[in-house]
Amino acid sequence: MPIRERLSGNEAIAVAMKQINPDVVAAFPITPSTEIAQYFSSYVANGEVETEFVPVESEHSAMSACIGSQGAGARTMTATSSCGLALMWETLYLAASLRLPITMTCVNRALSGPININADHSDSMGARDSGWIQLYSETNQEAYDNFIQAVRIGEHKDVLLPVMVCQDGFITSHAIENIELLEDELVKAFVREYTPEHYLLNPAEPIAMGPYDTAVYYMEHKRQQAQAMVNAKDAILEIADEFSKLTGRKYGLFEEYRLDDAETALVIVNSSAGTAKVVVDELRMLGKKVGLLKIRVFRPFPMEEIAAALKHVKAVAVMDKCEGFSAAGGPLFAEIRSALYDAKDNVKIVNYIYGLGGRDVRVQDIEAVYSALDEIIATGDVKQVYRYLGVRG
Predict the structure, then answer these.
(1) CA-to-CA dists, residue 257 to 86, 122, 143, 237, angstroms
(2) Closest Cα partner for 292 from 383, 355, 370, 375?
(3) pTM of the entire structure?
């Protein structure tokens, strides 16, 4: 029977970690992810898990310790945010290229500067090409569910890549919501025992990790790593199907919300999808054919599937809670526009940069975006592709 609880997103992740009982957690505190390690360290101190908890001196050290322990054959986890993730930059690439299925939660927070502790996606989007699988979470429930699935995804024999589970700082990380937890034994059975094939502490197979890779081999290793990311799509869906049979909660590469017959649609990530769904429902009651596509899996990027989901829509607004500083739009927009390039029908597409540094995103803001899409359909003229939402001046 599911366990009904009321938890913040941070505590939900910590509970998932406790139920999984990893071999090692290495962490350094940074707002707003600090509570995850704080909660988990109390489980360690109370003897509720057998995990080796390693408090380190920086986020770079945290990921370095994770690489060492996962490379040694230990199931390893951590948590971070914002500049902490940025300090891990070098080691993020190492973890992915060494094919180490570390599981990390990123509680999304704006990158400095100016310094800001509130939610936007500049941290995880900045790491989008580091080789990590990225899952995004609208609610506390999804953060919990995604984290449990992430362990299986990363450790899948055809994948073997680290996985980053993202949720919005303070909006979900600290807000308390109703949640359904799995029983401990079900989580343990779902994630299974970690039995790596190749690891440093295996006396039967002496290996090296992280040696210099010459031009003779480097490109082939990168091709293998890239293929693992391709393979991850099937693994994600396979594991989501198994999770659905266990819980009744269905997950895909993305969520289509009232999109089947939509003429206009938003593409959005994380908690703002909840606000957008309210607007979709209200506009549907007024007879408007609006819909929403919520990204769950950003890496691997489900290009063909997104193109199929949006090909019938006449106008699309891609919502980026991150400025790409490309002078042409945000990172999500670039990927969605690329996905729609080969669509048979000419889908009109615009980009909105919104919510930076925790700027509120209100129902009327989302309504304004749908109104702008209606105008594009009526006139056939996109005018300005790269737009800001809710900015003064």
Answers:
(1) 33, 25, 19, 18
(2) 370
(3) 0.97
